[in-house]
Design a protein that fits this description.
The structure holds 2 protein chains of 2 kinds. Chain A contains 11 helices and 2 strands; from the N terminus they run ααββααααααααα. By secondary structure, chain A is an all-alpha fold. In chain A, strands 1-2 form a two-stranded antiparallel ribbon. In chain A, a hairpin with a 4-residue loop joins β1 and β2. By secondary structure, chain B is of the alpha/beta class. Chain B has 10 helices and 10 strands. Chain B is globular and about 55 Å long. Classes of the chains: A mainly alpha, B alpha/beta. At the A-B interface, α4, α7 and α8 of A face α2, α3 and α6 of B.
């Protein structure tokens, strides 16, 4: 009898512990979001979004930083997504599990563990200086692409591996080539996972500061080409806050950033569910 | 029947090269190709569709087929019967080279289809697999519509014209005795079909690429008795036009279906005879024990 009561008490206690941990996690997220929005949302007006900053950002809007962020992140995804998905397809469909594929996977996983400031340094030395691309959208995008590549490879690989082997066998047994099998039977089922991974990588890229501040620059001009320097939103926020230019506008920028990233994550879930609903009857 | 007799021509069949792990791609380096084959010694008579000679199949070091030699005639219904682990599925997978897909496998011996060695150099493996259709044990549909499932193979062969695809799909579904049940909902997701319907869809999918041989690997193992009966009846229609190889672990099914029965055990062909003979007077004690239910 007592033992049973002990067990039940422990069961209740542990339920409490797990719930507390969950509440803490969610609470932290909610707190950060609410805090930033409270401090920053009131400066976010259409003008703030659509005007160029004046007085180094003390007044005016953040339009060039929005353009800069879209340009750098967008280009980075355009570079990283095909390379990442192709790597994942190669690892899953074109090689058997072996020392080589394990080495490649180990390499990409290590790439994911490298601090972003190191990517920034590498991008600065290699793209900006050595390849003489200067502080530019292309330098920032290439650096960011290298940084988000492991995420895309990893999520794509998992999505592709989750496709039932039976689909491949059916396709091959009907006389399809490997390319036909990959495009006809494997990738369509893996698309939701791959898209989700790419969207999450976009979210990560948008918020990245260290990797782009050394490579895309901090220019407040509107770029005319991918070889022009830009300032992204997190860099703008960093400079406004770090230099004590305007905490008001820094929070405004942060609010925009957080809302965008939340929307992207919601978009990722929406895409995932939509595709999942489509493929499972 | 002389199934296990090795003719002098095969005495020099070389051992398979070991599979090379880590090779990008399974079609090269994975399959050992025996070289010392006597040219002309294996000219099969015209009514022999598949001629298997001393076929050995390895998963790594494990020998799953231990030197199988047998012939399969055109338009015959051959049942391969045996318990789990007897090499039935492995045999099918070595006939359409689907075994190539598994890492670390290797093959030795010969498989001649229409007198041509399918493990020889310059074989178009995709085309081989089209000619030798395979229906898997569990009914699996591709995550797309009924129509698209059947049209999958033809589309990969480059058939794009709508009217032609429609015709191929209808013919294949009719031949698989599924047309009447699905003709009004071809655009439905194939996953909505029942298990028995899904298995007939799998057969239709194979028929749509116009194979010459159809291999069915325990096609009724997941099905109810009525669906099973349907598939078995279908086999008799298929054999009018195709060479049919049925794999089953169930002696009763082998007896119902008729045709020749080849009994496999632990990677060996124990004996082969017409169903009427093998079930009444098996030559080998092991066959008798199996069909009388002493093991398996």
């Amino acid at each position: 009898m007592t033992r049973k009561r002990d067990e039940r008490a422990r069961d209740r206690a542990m339920t409490g512990v797990f719930m507390a941990a969950t509440v803490l996690t969610i609470g932290l997220l909610v707190y950060i979001v609410v805090y930033i929005l409270q401090k920053g949302l009131h400066v976010v007006t259409p003008a703030f979004l659509l005007e160029s900053p004046t007085e180094m950002g003390r007044a005016g809007g953040i339009y060039p930083a929005i353009i800069g962020t879209i340009a750098v992140t967008g280009l980075a995804i355009l570079i990283a997504a095909p390379v990442g998905v192709a790597t994942a397809v190669f690892l899953t469909e074109y090689t058997h599990e072996s020392a080589v594929s394990r080495l490649i996977r180990f390499g990409t996983e290590n790439l994911a563990g490298i601090p972003s400031i190191i990517f920034g340094l590498f991008g600065f030395l290699f793209f900006v200086i050595y390849l003489d691309l200067g502080w530019s959208i292309i330098s920032g995008a290439l650096t960011l692409a290298a940084m988000i590549l492991p995420t895309i490879v990893r999520t794509s690989e998992e999505a592709i591996r989750a496709v039932p082997t039976a689909y491949r066998e059916i396709s091959y047994a009907l006389g399809s080539t490997r390319w036909q099998t990959v495009t006809g039977a494997v990738l369509p089922s893996a698309v939701p996972g791959i898209v989700t991974g790419i969207i999450l990588a976009v979210g990560r890229g948008i918020g990245e500061t260290a990797a782009v501040i050394f490579t895309a620059g901090a220019s407040l001009g509107i770029p005319a080409s991918i070889f022009d320097p830009v300032r992204t939103l997190p860099v703008h926020f960093y400079i406004l806050a770090r230099e004590g230019i305007s905490m008001e506008n820094a929070y405004g920028t942060a609010a925009v950033l957080i809302v965008v990233i939340l929307l992207i994550n919601i978009g990722a879930y929406w895409a995932m569910n939509r595709f999942a609903a489509k493929s499972n009857v | 029947m002389g199934n296990k007799v090795i003719s002098p021509g095969e005495a020099g069949v070389a051992q398979a090269g070991q599979a090379q792990d880590g090779q990008p791609g399974f079609s090269r380096g994975m399959v050992g190709i025996s070289n010392a084959r006597g040219a002309g010694t294996n000219q099969a008579p015209p009514d022999i569709k598949v001629s298997i000679r001393e076929l050995r199949f390895y998963y790594g070091k494990l020998e799953a087929l231990k030197g199988i030699t047998m012939d399969i005639r055109k338009n015959e219904l051959l049942t391969i019967m045996g318990p789990s682990g007897s090499g039935k599925t492995t045999l099918l997978r070595s006939l359409n080279r689907l075994g190539d897909l598994i890492a670390g496998t290797s093959v030795s011996g010969q498989v001649l289809v229409d007198g041509k060695d399918i493990y020889g150099p310059g074989v178009d493996v995709a085309e081989l697999r089209r000619r030798i259709g395979m229906v898997f044990a569990l009914p699996v549909v591709l995550p797309m519509s009924i129509y698209d499932n059947v049209a999958y193979g033809p589309r990969k062969r480059g058939i794009k014209r709508r009217a032609l695809l429609d015709e191929i799909v209808e013919q294949a579904l009719r031949a698989a005795i599924l047309w009447d049940e699905v003709k009004d909902r071809l655009r439905d997701h194939a996953g909505r079909l029942s298990g028995g319907q899904q298995q007939r869809l799998s057969i239709a999918r194979v028929l749509a690429v116009q194979p010459e041989i159809i291999m069915l690997d325990e096609p009724t193992s997941g099905l109810d008795p009525i669906s099973t009966l349907r598939i078995e009846e279908l086999l008799h229609e298929l054999v009018e036009r195709y060479t049919v190889i049925l794999v089953t672990h169930n002696p009763l099914q082998a007896a119902r279906v008729g045709g020749d029965v080849a009994f496999f055990l632990l990677g060996e062909l124990v004996e082969r005879a017409p169903a009427g003979v093998i079930f009444t007077s098996p030559r080998d004690k092991r066959t008798e024990d199996y069909i009388t239910g002493k093991f398996g």
